[in-house]
Amino acid sequence: MATEEYGAKDLAVLEGLDAVRKRPGMYIGTTDSQGLMHCLWEIIDNSVDEALAGFCDDIVVTLHTDGSVEVADNGRGIPVDKEPKTGLSGVEVVLTKLHAGAKFGNSSYNAVGGLHGVGSSVVNALSSRLDVEVDRDGQTHHMAFHQGHPGVYSDADPANPSPDAPFKRTRKNRPTELEIIGKVSPKTTGTRIRYWADPEIFNKTAKFSYEQLVDRVRQTSFLVPGLKITIVDENVPEESSATVPVAPATASDDLTTVMDGFSTVIPSEVEESQASSETSTEAASISNTSVTIDDGAFGKQPNHPRVAEFRHTGGVKDFVDFLSKGEPISDIWRIQGEGTYKEETQAVGAGGELHAQEIERTCGIDIALRWVNGYDTTIMSFVNIVETPGGGTHVDGFMNSITKQIRKAVEDNARKLKVNLKDNAMRVERDDIQAGLVAVVTARVAEPQFQGQTKDVLGTAQVKPIVTRITDKQFGEMITGSKRGFKDQSARVLEKIVGEMHARIQSRKAKEVTRRKNALESASMPAKLSDCQPGNDDVAELFIVEGDSALGTAKAARNAGFQALLPIRGKILNVQKASITQMLSNKECAAIIQVVGAGSGQSFDIEQSRYHKVIMMTDADVDGAHIRILLLTLFYRYMRPLIEHGYVYAAVPPLHRIALTGSRKGEYIYTYSDDELAGKLAELDRQHIGYADDIQRYKGLGEMDADQLADTTMDPRTRMLRRIRMEDAAQASEIFSLLMGDDVPPRKQFIVDNADDFDRSKIDT
């Protein structure tokens, strides 16, 4: 067998930025949309680092019509003098040399996001063209690059540079002089970088996301108080340049189903197909309110303003307030402090050599948190201004500390909170604490250690004990109520957490006894449940019926093979205003949770649901509408996956019955609103069809006989159901808080503002 020769001639040496172009994934993760956005973050973060150092307060990100992106700041500007070791200008060193920059030293930057020294040079390497302008020393300096190599472009129109213009590359080993293209005030400094992503590197599916840009810029404005960041999209016409916010999305007038688009009336036989094709209307807003924007490439009729500005002064406290959705349980609590630690690192000597050096570091932490009604958890963490979605040592220290302090507070107040310390199951778990928790955890660290260039997880071990120590002291005073003004708040927080614990324990027990496996198991259900026959789990329906009179009729009208009935007495507890403990103590709420059989809160498991349709069958009047919204509030707050998976419906009982006469005697027409009744009667008159003058108006479901109830409301072949939809969870949460919460003035204002647009038909159907 012949052997191949293998020698030094077979080794390839990639110099400079060629290695980046060969293996881009090592530096930006991927070459799809994620990598495309990562390049932009690197350039923006360099400008934000100037703001963190106290030298910049204004950043402008411009999206040009040719697909290029420009980031401008009023920082100190990249150095333009010669770097002694290479003989190149500071601009060329920063943009062409990997692991080069002031962030390796200990004097220019104390806490930065881009600390590996590869950000700008990697973006340069992966761009078909990059132009940089620097204002320093009273002059504007300019330099251009093609795929990371310096040179000169011969643009036909200098005002409209193009990556396709002729390019003359600077010869190797020849220093490239910065071109001076203008003069500025000696006090004017800053950097402007404009680049075109290289289509040879990024795949065809790579797509720029304006929504991601807005989210990142907004969060940065929270993390660097006082910094103004402006996004200018030149793809949007000039006439759309106003920065006035678009009116935020509001609830519809449909008090039955809470918001327009949240539910849809559909005939039973086509309910599945039609429901899946529906869409909801969403409104976008810019400035300091939420933004809902469709992703789009440049030049594709953007659905957003031309100019969006972001500036906040409250820091992480404002951030938590922005992230909070739902009724607040507590005010926003703030934890701040700093600590020092020693770390051995490689320092750069005067001659450029590396040597080990032990230095003392300072770690500052700034944490804001609050609890809101509900069980969703929102914890965002950052090191300097870099988001760490994977958490890290700063988040571990925070969570370990609040878990320890809350457990201690629960033990100290066990009798008041009705916690049996002898029961090993009654132990607060982290999931109980995180339910409804909104927190932003930030750490300021010089030269933090991340896991990889993408910086998803903080790995600096010394940060954890500092965060733990500071949180132990400050949060401990808050949760025990010993800090002034926190006694009532801490009591509410502890009550909520203990309620979550009880809900988790009860859900676990419920799952053990509520799965329908045989007839004997059904006996463990509430006595008032009229269950269906076992073995039909995939089509089983649960009707929640208003009142005993309607229950009697429904029993005769139902198909016992797959339709179960659970009566409720009038209006159930408003869980928006009640604590979890109160909800679990309410017989009606507890019965619904037990019968559904999938648990509640964070432990809810949609796969364990005993029914694939949960149908609210209430009277066609205002009281019935109120009962429906109370039930929806229970489902949304504690069994939300039922709504998310389309399991929740509202029956649509008729309001009137028209009895025909003459040749059509014995036939009946049902109508569902007063307007529909008037229209139907007019139509019958035009067609000369006789009908009885005594139009029956149903005051309740109990007035119907079994056949009528079956035909109009329960028989899948003839009934109509309203499927409850939830297209926008954040908007739904706000609407539930508005309509069902304790704060009366906003609800009153909502009614006043929407009174003119009120559609009565949505109530009476």
TrEMBL record:
GO terms for biological process: DNA topological change. It is an enzyme of class 5 (isomerase). Residues 151-171, 270-302 are annotated as: Disordered. Residues 273-290 have a biased composition (Low complexity). One of its GO terms (molecular function) is metal ion binding. It catalyses: ATP-dependent breakage, passage and rejoining of double-stranded DNA. Residues 540-654 form the Toprim domain. Keywords: ATP-binding, DNA-binding, Isomerase, Magnesium, Metal-binding, Nucleotide-binding, Topoisomerase. Its cofactor is Mg(2+). NCBIfam families: PRK05644.1. This is DNA topoisomerase (ATP-hydrolyzing).
